[in-house]
Amino acid sequence: xxxxxxxxxxxxxxxxxxxxxxxxxxxxxxxxxxxxxxxxxxxxxxxxxxxxxxxxxxxxxxxxxxxxxxxxxxxxxxxxxxxxxxxxxxxxxxxxxxxxxxxxxxxxxxxxxxxxxxxxxxxxxxxxxxxxxxxxxxxxx
Length: 141
Known about the structure:
Layout: H1 10-29, H2 36-65, H3 69-78, H4 80-94, H5 101-112, H6 130-137
Helix pairs in contact: 1-2, 1-5, 2-3, 2-4, 2-6
C-alpha cells in the first residue's frame, strides 16, 4: 500500500481563503451603500478568518510535533492579525456599527495586496446567508 498524500493542505486552503477575502474586498469596494449583500460579505470575511486561524493552529501543531518550535511560533506571529481582524469585523456586525467598515477594510487591503484578482471566480452564493448565520451565533446578553 502506498503513502497517502493529502492534496488539500492547510496552506492550500489558506491561499484559497485569502483569494476569497481579496475578491470580497474588491466587490465591497464597488458597493455604494450597505445592503444585505454587503452584510453577507462581511460575515463571510469573519468565517474565512476563522478557518485561516484554525488552519494556522493545525499547521503550528504539526511543526511543534516535529520539534520545530521556532517555525511554529513564526507561523503564528505572521498570521496573528487574522484572529484580530475577524474579531473586529464580528464586533462591528454585532454592534451594528457600520461607520467602522471603511477603517477596518483599509487595514485589510495591505494583507491582500499581493493577490491579483483579474477575474472573479467566487460566486455570491458562497456568502449568501452568512450574515444571518453569524447573527445566530451572537451570545444573548
